[in-house]
Structure formats: structure tokens, C-alpha cells
Amino acid sequence: MTESPAAGPAAPLRAEALTRVYGSGALGSRHAVHAVAGVDLTLGAGEIVALVGESGSGKSTVARLLAGLERPTSGRVLLHGAEVGTLRGRAFRRYTRQVQLIFQDPFASLNPVHTVRYVLRRSLAIHRPQLRGAARDDAVRGLLERVRLTPVDRFLRAFPHELSGGQRQRVAIARALGAEPAVLLADEPVSMLDVSLRLGVLDLLRDLRDTMGIAILYITHDIASARYFADRILVMYQGQVVESGDSESVTQRPEHPYTRLLIDSAPDPERVVR
Ligand code: ADP
Ligand code: MG
């Protein structure tokens, strides 16, 4: 199914006929897993798009392909019109800076031996090496303020085990912001958090979109949270996008039976909103 290109040529990120096959022999083999099969996707500047589907539908594989962590079996990814597969060296590193991935598990994504200050200084050292000394420390403070971890001094000294899941996820988001990304790929960013913390993290991400114009791909199995958070929804089923449209239409007037199933199986449509 082809998605209408709402964003036009200026779209930061675009995927065309994205396909990823795992296992022996790749395409055509009986043992092959077609994790992603012909996905078209456009993420416009400052847009929040949700990729919704059950476990195993291919969402994380799409994220890895978009982040440049894996190469597609076929199809292509374009950032500002440039095909990622052709980028090498510095151009490829610039790409990986501009497209940052936020993972599901904030407990696994932070090294327990490092303070928050260390984690953020390191991100800046990698992505913005021109910032040194006091300028780097100022930028670290700015990142913490951006993700609303204040008072800043308290969080600078903290180790991951001293933080809640929501606070850890904010540190992970701050670390990603250190790269000054155009796009955040958030792979189930709140599904491991206490229900009471989910809304705060989603509202933070939306605020980053509103104030910095960052485009966000929000990956989730929870269509109710997608409706709350995203401008558009793409429903993924067995590696393919089976339905897409603006969030209201997809959730109010679903056309594909699988979308209806996702809506009906959401136990409490208000739970992300409380
Ligand atoms: P989701 O994130 O929606 O749960 P995934 O993208 O993780 O889905 O997985 C999609 C399908 O691809 C699943 O059948 C999964 O088992 C398979 N898969 C994912 N990664 C690999 C891999 N590295 N090797 C083999 N199969 C994989
Ligand atoms: Mg996944």
C-alpha cells in the first residue's frame, strides 16, 4: 500500500519499497523471514508518525533500517533526498547523527557505571567535538533542561540506578539530542515505563517536535497511544503497511480488519492519558 506523500520533497526521511529478509538464501528461500516487505514511509519535517503493529510485525526492523544500523535487502532510505545506501565515511556519519534511535529499554541503554554527566559529555564529544571545556558543560546543562531533568545539578551527578525509568528515558533522549538530530526514531519508548510516567515522556517528545522541529517516528503496539500522540498512523502487519492515514481517521474509521483488531484489543483506550 502506498502512502500519500504528505510531506513533499523537503521530507527529512523517506523509505521506498523497504524490504529486509533474514535467514538462509534471502529472497525466495523457504527458510527466509520477510521481516519487512515493501514498506513506503514518509516522515515530514516536524511531523509525528506512528508505526503501529503487534510484536513481530517488523517495526524494529524498519527502525534499524532507517537508522542505518542495517542495510535493506532491497528498497531504499533517503534523507533530504540523498540515498543513504550510497553514503560513505563522513557523509554516512552525518546521516547517523541526524537520525537518532531511542530504544525501548531505558534500563539496558545506559551503562550503570557512568553518571548522567559522563553520558551526556560523551555524546557531545562524539557529535559536537568543537564544544570543549566550559562550553561542553554548558551544553550538557542545556540538554538536561531540554528534557526537564531539573534541578540540573542533582541529575548531573546521578547514576542510572538512582533514576526512575522515566528519568532514564529522558537521559537517553538528551543523549540523542546531543547529536542535533533532524529525526528521532522512538522504538516503543514508553512501553517499559510505569503507566504514570508514560504521558510525561510522550509530552516531552511532542514538545521537542514543537520547539525544535524534530520529526518523530513513534513505534508502538498501542494504537490508543498512537492516536493520542501522532499526526498520522501507519499500521504494520506481517512486514507490510496495511493501512495509513491521519490518526483520527485510522482510529475512528479503520478500514483494514487488522486495524480494527488492534483497536478492539486495546484494553483501555484512555490509559496513556489516564
Ligand atoms: P517488531 O519490532 O514489530 O516486534 P521485529 O522487526 O523485531 O518486529 O521482527 C520482525 C520479524 O523479523 C520477526 O519475525 C522476527 O523474528 C524477525 N527478525 C528480526 N530480526 C531478526 C534477525 N536479526 N534475524 C532473524 N530474524 C529476525
Ligand atoms: Mg520491536
UniProtKB/TrEMBL annotation:
CDD domains: ABC_NikE_OppD_transporters. GO terms for molecular function: ATP binding; ATP hydrolysis activity. Transmembrane segments: none annotated. Gene3D superfamilies: P-loop containing nucleotide triphosphate hydrolases. Residues 13-263 form the ABC transporter domain. GO terms for biological process: peptide transport; transmembrane transport. Keywords: ATP-binding, Nucleotide-binding, Transport. Signal peptide: none annotated. The keyword ATP-binding applies. Pfam families: ABC_tran (PF00005), oligo_HPY (PF08352). The keyword DNA-binding does not apply. This is Dipeptide/oligopeptide/nickel ABC transporter ATP-binding protein.
